[in-house]
Amino acid sequence: MAEPKAKLQPRIIGRYELHAEIASGGMATVHLGRIVSDAGFSRVVAIKRLHPHLARDPTFAAMFIDEARLASHIQHPNVVSTLDVVATEGELFVVMDYVRGMSLWKLIHVTVGKRGFVPLDVASTIGVGVLDGLHAAHEARNQDGLPLGIVHRDISPQNVLVGVDGVPRVIDFGVAEAAGRQQSTHDGKLKGKLGYMPPEQFEGRPADRRGDIYSASVVLWEVLTGQRLFEGQTEAETFRKILVGPPEPPSTYAPPETKALDDIIMRGLARDPADRFATARDMALAIERASTPAPTRRVGEWVAAMAGDTLDERNPPIVEAELQRGSHV
Description:
- Helix 4 (about 120-140) packs antiparallel against helix 6 and helix 4 (about 120-140) runs antiparallel to helix 9.
- This protein has helices at about 50-55, 60-70, 105-115, 120-140, 200, 210-225, 235-245, 260-270, 280-290, 295-315, 315-325, and strands spanning about 10-15, 15-25, 30-35, 40-50, 80-90, 90-95, 100-105, 160-165, 170.
- The protein is globular.
- It is α+β, with helices and mostly antiparallel strands.
- The strands form two sheets. It has a six-stranded antiparallel sheet with strand order 1-2-3-4-6-5. Strands 7-8-9 form a three-stranded antiparallel sheet.
- A hairpin with a 2-residue loop joins strand 5 (about 80-90) and strand 6.
């Protein structure tokens, strides 16, 4: 009989334990972590760790800290909270709320794999939550009460988490535009994911909140239809699809009841920013008037039904222990 594998000991960084990696990207990895204290307090968190070779680069290190500083000003249930920044042993870590759930991108793919559609009431709740989170970002102010002018610029299904608590949350302000941002994003490069960028961004016009409204409308179109709205075999073909001709309304590809949101989504997808909703809150209110969003309890049940097995399989001992203790995760 094989010997059982030795349990890996967590790395201690300040008052946090760093546990298993749960996600990885070009700039950072995300780990499960836990706040620990001598008084016995414990809470599971997510800890974003800048890749060590980037942490040694002053430009990347400053960008990483700047993102955390910016996100810390946004206090809203539909935005993942930034709790702390830790610099130790030449590395940088950002501590955030841990969300037990899945990215909207994965949830759409699971739904399509089951040959189904996201229910309209669930889609409405997700859309309203994303828009409410964006509105909170757009309206955020600094400690002196001055508007920060935050524009996310990278809204996509990958940057929305939906928890088993039924709450959708916006994440990743890495390429956000904001007044007074220490690391400027005006370098001539396109920011964000191509299929979700508003047309004006290709023209180099200044970013404003209406660009995020456009991106959120693309996301909601895809939630309802289970298809990509703008996707080509090449980047040039994707550009063409975005810039040439209006898209068809979602009900063209989705169940008939989705027609209730057609006009709202098509307004959000208007080529001219002036023809879109003035604020994300205005669009959220329009969705609430046109449909009946599901209560978060029902959304949570839907997330569990779509992704429950996967979530259970990837739940490491640290999460199981905290769930059994009854702590909030």
